[in-house]
Amino acid sequence: GPLQRLTPGTLGTVTLPTWLSGSAKADDADFFRARNMDPARAAFTLEHNVKSRTALLERFAPGKPAATAWTDYESDLPYDAADGERKIDFLARAFADLKPDFVLDLGSNTGRYSLMAAEAGARVVAIDSDPAVADILWHRARDANADVLPLVGNIAAPTPATGWRNMECASLLDRASGQFDMILALALFHHLAVSERVPLADIVGMWADLT
Q1: What does the alpha-carbon distance between residue 131 and residue 134 come to, in Å, rounded to a whole number?
Q2: Is the pLDDT assigned to residue 27 strictly greater than 70?
Q3: Residue-wise pLDDT tens digits, 178-210
Q4: Which pTM value belongs to this model?
Q5: CB-based contacts of 17, cutoff 8 Å, min separation 6
Q6: In whole angstroms, what is the distance from residue 142 CA to residue 133 CA?
Q7: Residues 65, 160, 185, CA angle at the centre, nearest 5°?
Q8: What local confidence, expressed as pLDDT, does residue 39 receive?
Q9: How far is CA 195 from CA 52, 171, 190, 198, in A?
Q10: Residue 124 backbone dihedrals phi, psi, to 5 degrees
Q11: What letters, b where the CB count within 10 A reaches 16 and e where it falls short, cover 59-78?
Q12: Neighbours of 164 (CB within 10 A)
């Protein structure tokens, strides 16, 4: 729109170049001949444009996620070193023994155990309600080239079906039903049983439906 053309981000990069280029007519031979006579100047202009556009794009690059109550959760766990190692050893043996193809990690946090499952050969869907930890996991999975899909969601209030007559996009539970060989729900049970007041049978029943 007219006003948007004058905003700082658009004026220098889109609007002014468009207006200025309009002053050069296609049949103005002298104009194009003058511009084409100096290759050094053309190279300098091109280099300047690339650098300025690169700097502009870098301004929009995502920064470090803001810290939340959950971003440092793994480092703040009240485990001693031996307890932490036993947990990791248990999971490593479970992955080796069961060889799951498709793992669902509920309450995945920053994805330490999601990445373990992926390293063991599984495809992993990792769900957490905190966007900051999902973002951290996305970067960790990308850097490790790990087959992990981080999603933001609350398993206690899962995303419903949406769209026309709720038929365009199925609900999270419908899409996930019967899809997984293994579910990780580490340090999640008390959130469901205590905070959300979900009965034990319903928690286990939902996990059974997803496998």
Answers
A1: 5
A2: no
A3: 999 999 999 899 999 999 999 999 999 999 999
A4: 0.69
A5: none
A6: 14
A7: 60
A8: 85
A9: 51, 23, 7, 8
A10: -130, 135
A11: eeeeeebeeeebbeeeeeee
A12: 7
